[in-house]
Write a structure and sequence with these properties.
The longest helix has 25 residues, at 287-311. The protein has helices spanning 2-8, 12-33, 40-62, 69-91, 100-117, 119-128, 139-146, 153-163, 165-183, 188-200, 203-210, 218-229, 239-255, 260-283, 287-311, 313-321, 324-327, 335-347, 349-364, 369-386, 400-416, 422-437, 451-455, 463-473, 478-491, 509-513, 541-544, 565-579, 605-612, 616-621, 627-636, and strands spanning 498-500, 547-552, 580-587, 593-599. Strands 1-2-4-3 form a four-stranded mixed β-sheet. By secondary structure, it is mainly alpha-helical. It starts with a helix and ends with a helix.
């Protein structure tokens, strides 16, 4: 009898699979029984989050990493501290979510609306987005517990602590432990405390999260790739490891398209490391073993590329057909030299010291593989990405896996030799953590500095930038923004629109459209702006608008060379009295005055051509976005 019972015993992994399978079947039954239920999407989201968490634990098991009581205690403590930090950081500011900072929030609303029509419509919206620049893949994991909140931008950011951070912490802890195993760290306790805390508090890990950009979700899969490959050299086929690697790679690309640069850079560097390892084995007389390594690597690589192309064909075809370098040239601020400067500013001197300690530590031990792997991945990813554009603060995420591989040897160097100059090392560690946690996470952050340093920054040339940074990060003009939004709503009937010329971080249409979230009373009454060549079409809504809004002085934050709204504003001011009359002014309380102009004369071909002729250079580069758009509009309106 006992023998029969032992055969019926199910492993922990089997229990997890059984639980996920039964819960998925129950969800399917629920979908058929109540197809329009508002509870279905949150339950699907909860299931996806649990499945991802268990997959992360499975990846740790495959990588032969075990979290003991000490590690789990640290993880719970860090998660609790993160919850308090997010709550404090989000409630001490008044931020309006715009552009990239509202994209995923809008996608979440759209996904909820699609699932409200039924499960088929919901999943069609998710999978149908895979060819878009922003996919709805992440929304599958975020709706629970977001559905239980007031559904504002702040609550969307805070919910990431529940839906993303636990799994991310588990995978990151596994990566720290795995790196320690490879480095053969002697003082494992201090190494884990120093290494894990250093990575978790790195400012650009949480930068996007605090601005409601769940791009850091992709790091779950990026760190999983590292965890599964750091000590694996394809000596033998491991189907489960290969399967996890494949799905982690697909998921990181679906999380945000620019993670593809990390994927290409890392896998190239990793394949080179495997080939070097197999070459050494061949020279040592193990030619058959070396050939098996190469064969397994090729088999996995070719099979993965073929399967990935089939699975993500929508995305692959978009990448092959779209000129990203041309369309995103506006964001190229100075090529590789400028990117190196940005990386240095975001990295910070304290982390540079840590990396140097790690490099010395590894070369003394004749174990340079991790530094070489991380360094080569960084170089390749940086070169590939900079062909398209220079990175913003949120795109720093694609470089974090490489930087973290360089941070961890430094943590090992401090931990293994902690007894020498103990007090100095502990002070350096604690000071770095306090400094990192204090860094201002704002849209304009380019230099990782705490609030107290920015408030007393010694360079007078940077004071105007810091002033504008404060204005955009902590809005003191929210009542005025909301007043204008309500004014537009009350003065524009159904089918009528207003057009706003300013389009930058200080003021743009999104500020006014999103200032009352989750309510969007002027979502279809205020047109999108016109600013970035190669991205924004010539604004025909300007000619259709009942009201046109502009500001004095014209906002000048986060604009680059070639930005177009300035030129549009100058053209408007030169002829405004021929077509418009002033309706109202609004003092924003920060030195900016908004003026609302009402159109009094119907648009003509001459007016359209007047504005179009000022954008000849942009029109020559992108005729389909300028002259074609204008001519199609003129033809549709009988002009």
């Amino acid at each position: 009898m006992s023998a029969v019972l032992s055969r019926l015993r199910v492993s922990a992994g089997g229990k997890v699979l059984l639980f996920l399978g039964i819960s998925a079947a129950l969800l399917a039954i629920f979908a058929f029984a109540a197809p329009g239920s508002g509870a279905f999407f949150p339950l699907v989201s909860l299931w996806c989050s649990l499945a991802l968490f268990f997959c992360a634990l499975g990846a740790l098991r495959v990588a032969q990493v075990k979290l003991d009581l000490f590690h789990c205690t640290v993880l719970i403590g860090v998660w609790a501290a993160a919850l308090l930090y997010f709550f404090w950081a989000l409630h001490r500011r008044s931020f309006v979510y715009i552009w990239d900072y509202a994209n995923y929030l809008t996608l979440q609303y759209e996904a909820e609306a699609a699932f409200a029509e039924g499960p088929a419509a919901g999943f069609a919206a998710i999978f149908g987005s895979f060819g878009d620049d922003y996919t709805s893949f992440i929304t599958l994991f975020l709706d629970f517990p977001f559905c239980l909140t007031d559904r504002t931008g702040d609550s969307f950011a805070l919910c990431q602590v529940f839906s993303i951070l636990p799994t991310l912490l588990v995978v990151l802890a596994g990566l720290v432990i795995k790196a320690g195993q490879l480095l053969q760290v002697r003082n494992r306790l201090w190494y884990f405390l120093i290494g894990f805390s250093w990575l978790v508090t790195y400012p650009f890990l949480r930068m996007s999260a605090l601005l409601a950009q769940p791009d850091w979700f992709g790091l779950i899969f990026a760190f999983t790739i590292l965890l599964l490959t750091l000590d694996y050299r394809f000596e033998k086929p491991e189907p489960l490891r290969w399967l996890l690697l494949f799905f982690a790679t697909a998921a990181v690309i679906l999380s945000r398209r620019w993670y593809l640069y990390f994927v290409v850079g890392y896998y190239f560097s990793y394949a080179l490391l495997v080939l070097v390892h197999s070459t050494k084995r061949a020279r040592a007389g193990e030619k058959s073993a070396a050939l098996r390594q190469v064969g397994n690597l090729v088999l996995f690589g070719l099979g993965s590329v073929a399967a990935m192309t089939a699975l993500l064909w929508q995305m692959v075809s978009r990448i092959l057909s779209y000129d990203y370098a041309g369309r995103y040239s506006f964001y190229n601020g100075g090529g590789i030299a400028y990117e190196l400067l940005l990386q240095g500013c975001r990295l910070g001197l304290l982390n540079v010291v840590l990396i140097l300690l790690g490099v010395l530590y590894l070369f003394r031990r004749h174990r340079p593989a991790m530094v070489c792997l991380g360094g080569l991945e960084l170089v390749l990813s940086l070169l590939l990405f900079t062909r398209i554009q220079n990175s913003g603060s949120h795109q720093m995420l694609l470089y974090l896996p490489g930087w973290f591989l360089l941070f961890l040897p430094g943590a090992a160097a401090l931990a293994d030799d902690i007894r020498r100059h103990r007090n100095l090392k502990l002070f350096y560690w604690v000071f770095t953590l306090v400094f990192a946690v204090s860094v201002r996470c704002s849209p304009l952050t380019s230099l990782a500095l705490p609030d107290v340093v920015l408030d007393h920054f010694p360079l007078s040339a940077a004071k105007e930038f810091i002033r504008l940074d404060e204005l955009t990060y902590d809005r003191r003009d929210l009542p005025q923004i909301q007043y204008i939004a309500r004014w537009i709503d009350s003065h524009c009937a159904e089918g009528e629109i207003a057009y706003m010329i300013p389009h930058d971080m200080l003021y743009c249409p999104d500020h006014f459209k999103n200032c009352l979230l989750p309510e969007e009373p002027i979502g279809d009454k205020l047109a999108f702006g016109f600013s970035v060549p190669g991205t924004h079409n010539f604004p025909m809504e300007f000619f259709e608008a009942k009201y046109v809004l502009t500001a004095d002085p014209f906002p000048q934050t986060y604009v680059g060379q070639g930005e177009m709204s300035h030129k549009l504003n100058d053209l408007f001011l030169a002829v405004r009295d021929q077509y418009f009359t002033m309706e109202q002014t609004v003092d924003m309380g920060n030195g900016t005055i908004f003026t609302i102009w009402r159109r009094t004369v119907e648009p003509t071909r001459a007016e359209v051509e007047y504005y179009l002729s000022a954008f000849k250079d942009e029109g020559a580069l992108y005729p389909e976005m300028f002259s074609k758009v204008a001519e199609d509009w003129l033809a549709a309106h009988g002009m």
